[in-house]
Amino acid sequence: MATTERTEARTAAEILAGTRDLVDPALRTAVDTLPSPVRRIAGYHLGWWDERGRPAKADGGKALRPALTLLSAEASGGTARDALPGAVAVELVHNFSLLHDDVMDGDTTRRHRPTAWTVFGANAAILTGDALLALASDVLTVADNPDPGGTQRMLAGAVQDLIAGQLADLVLEERREVTVRECLGMAEGKTAALLACACALGATLAGAPPERVAALRGFGSRLGLAFQAADDLLGIWGDPTVTGKPVHSDLGRRKKSLPVVAALSSDTPAARELADLYHGDGPLEGPDLERAATLVEQAGGRTWTHEQADALLEDALRLLATADPVARTGAELTALARRATRRDH
Ligand code: GRG
Fold it and tell me: Can you tell me which residues the record assigns to a coiled coil (predicted)?
């Protein structure tokens, strides 16, 4: 059945699976145009191939950003197919940023597998990221794009925000005193900008008027912040079998994530003990990691971050309503937003 004919809202799992079905063939066609060594690394990172280039069925990510793009087009009265180039573009930018992020952070596991840089080398992983970024811009240059210049600028703007957010992240990691406001500002660039862009691209590719594009962009931005808050909670308390990352992974690297910064900002004995632990040298390990997680919780960082995620999600849904999404797409975007922030159960 064509997507526009559906009347019943799908669950988040169905939306994400349907997104993969539609986006993956186009993503593969795009990645196939890359020079072969880079294509091989990209295919490994995306879960299609093993380290020797043989077919694999590994985790390629949730496809949250392309799902937002397709649904934003449908919410604007267009079809998912109208937005396919935008969906591929945001997924390429997202994966570019992950390839670089893993090198910068020295992370060895991503999506339950060794990170690309540990398999192919840091330089090769960086260059593969660069290739995906160039490809992302390229896929928007299709004949039926109603606003080629505008969509290129949207993507370029999001990449600049991403870079600024990532740089802020690196700077804050080195700083002793970090405020919650600084932490949220960093997340706005590092994470929310691409989710906002995903929504704006979908609406634009469906020919939506500027007010609807802006409302959907706002929805994506607030959702992006809520998503980062939820991701920060998973970075400390997430189940490694689900997250594909080691237990307490963000604490091990002394990351200034939202729960940590909120905890450190509280005037409590737990905050003071956490500060002593967190401001030492080298990675946190073993019992220190467990202790740090307990102190973040005792100092109120876990509860505060949950409350922030809830408030940001509600804000996002208010903005979604102002976009006046057509028919079932409002319910589907809501389901996806709740899933992305783990507020669906
Ligand atoms: C060097 C030009 C240049 C830019 C790099 C590295 C970087 C800029 C930005 C990093 C941005 C980053 C990694 C943000 C984290 C966002 C986040 C929560 C990612 C996880 O997203 P999921 O859970 O991933 O949607 P999956 O695996 O499902 O695709």
Answer: none
Q: What is the pTM of this model?
A: 0.95
Ligand 1, pocket-test mutation among 59, 100, 312, most atoms within 8 A of CB = 100
Residues within a 6 A CB radius of ligand 1: 61-62, 64, 94, 97-98, 100-101, 111, 162-163, 166, 190-191, 228, 231
The residues, any chain, with a CB within 8 Å of residue 25's CB and separated by 6 or more, are none
Looking at the CA of residue 62, tell me the nearest atom of ligand 1. Answer: 28
Concatenated DSSP letters of 282-333: S---HHHHHHHHHHHHHTTHHHHHHHHHHHHHHHHHHHHHHT---TTHHHHH
Give 305-342 pLDDT, tens digit per residue: 999 999 999 999 999 999 999 879 999 999 999 999 98
Which protein residue's CA is at the shortest distance from atom 8 of ligand 1?
A: 163
Degrees, nearest 5: CA angle 216-223-316: 60
Q: Distance of CA 150 to CAs 157, 158, 175, Å?
A: 10, 12, 37
Q: Which helix (H) or strand (E) holds 110?
A: strand 109-110
Cα distances (Å, whole numbers) of residue 1 to 13, 44, 179: 18, 32, 50
**∠ at Cα 44 (205, 194), nearest 5°?**
30
The stretch 193-209 carries a mean pLDDT of 98
Alpha carbon nearest to ligand 1 atom 3, residue: 163
Burial of 52 (0-12, 13-18, 19+ CB in 10 A): exposed
The CA R_g of the chain, rounded to the nearest whole Å, is 20
Domains of the chain: 3-340 (1.10.600.10)
Average pLDDT of the segment spanning 255-268: 95
Distances (CA, A) of 303 to 233, 315, 328: 10, 18, 33
For the segment 62-82, what is each residue's pLDDT rounded down to a tens digit?
A: 999 999 999 999 999 999 999
- Nearest C-alpha neighbor of 253 from the set 283, 289, 276, 288: 283
What is the CA(95)–ligand 1 centre distance, in A?
Answer: 7
